[in-house]
UniProtKB/TrEMBL annotation, chains A, B:
Pfam families: TetR_C_43 (PF21597), TetR_N (PF00440). GO terms for molecular function: DNA-binding transcription factor activity; transcription cis-regulatory region binding. Transmembrane segments: none annotated. This is TetR family transcriptional regulator. The keyword ATP-binding does not apply. Residues 38-57 bind DNA. It comes from the Bacteria. The keyword Phosphoprotein does not apply. Keywords: DNA-binding, Transcription, Transcription regulation. Residues 15-75 form the HTH tetR-type domain. It comes from Streptomyces spinoverrucosus.
Length: 192, 192
């Protein structure tokens, strides 16, 4: 039997290779745009043999999807942490949406080009559905406390939020992002 | 000297060829997605010789850009007509945004995939800037009549509107689109 430590080392090694490939690919896309990235360039830049690279990922697109999923998972963890802080649903919704909008702003540039491609393609990741679900749950809580309008379903309101805040990507400052969040939140409030 | 009628006939013929190429390309994209479309397929399907096609357009991307620009120009004409009807700026804004959202909804599918690619690429057309400018002007009028909030610039509010209403693309019904427009408009109103 292979000792446990040995297994853990292999597992760790695999994770490190995967990590290196994802980081290298993201960096190449950021530098050269989507078109400049090939399996050969990724192997070269990450210092992994081409044969090894193909054992991990069949093609560039699969790497990009994995990178994108990992990005979203990281952001979800960050947003979950904000959601679980003390406060009313409305306050926590505001914190989550502001953070989400700032993340969108950071995605600007070639990495944003990558995300846009992922979003516009047929490929809709589980993680994205998770994000939508996540916002919807917060909105449902907000409806219960009367902080969020109840004449439109939380599902539709979640779609509205995520689309409106996607506009943060092209905003020049954090102040502009905060104004966008304020306008978006105003749309969510119960109407007199 | 070439008679005037002859020139007009040539001009008309050119317009007809251009039109046929754009329509064929849009139809091919709608059927097969972006990847299935080549210059040879476009020539074949539109019944134009390959050599002639290349006299009009150097590549598929140029055709797609031309198609997209024509789409937007058509939509702008429709929106301008709504803007110029009688009513307060707020009422006309609502009519324009609702029409815009319904247009977004119709773009669903492969043609939407095409538009999404155009939007996410480096290529931002003059027509798109025109649309943004158009909405911004209406918002500015709305600020003057007190129907639109004045604590955020019309420029930023225009970005908010267009992004929020882009969400209409995935909505299943016209009723859902109207709810989205109502929520988006609520974000634009002066805040108490």
């Amino acid at each position: 039997m292979v000792p446990k430590l040995w297994n853990e080392t292999i597992e760790e090694h695999r994770r490190a290779v995967r990590e290196a490939v994802l980081e290298t690919t993201a960096a190449l896309v950021a530098e050269q745009g989507l078109r400049g990235v090939t399996m050969s360039r990724i192997a070269e830049e990450s210092g992994i043999g081409r044969a090894t690279l193909y054992k991990y990922f069949p093609d560039v697109e699969t790497i990009m999807v994995a990178w994108h999923e990992r990005q979203i998972a990281g952001h979800l963890a960050e947003l979950s942490e904000l959601r679980d802080r003390p406060g009313t649903p409305g306050e926590r919704l505001e914190a989550v949406l502001e953070r989400y909008a700032l993340i969108q702003q950071q995605r600007h540039g070639h990495a944003g080009e990558l995300s846009a491609l992922m979003h516009s393609g047929d490929h809709v990741t589980h993680a994205e559905q998770h994000l939508r679900h996540f916002v919807r749950e917060l909105l449902t809580e907000g409806v219960q406390t009367g902080e969020v309008r109840d004449d439109v379903s939380p599902e539709e309101l979640a779609g509205y939020c995520l689309h409106a805040l996607a506009g943060a990507a092209s905003l020049p400052s954090r102040a502009a992002v905060r104004r966008l969040v304020a306008v978006t939140l105003a749309g969510l409030r119960p109407q007199g």
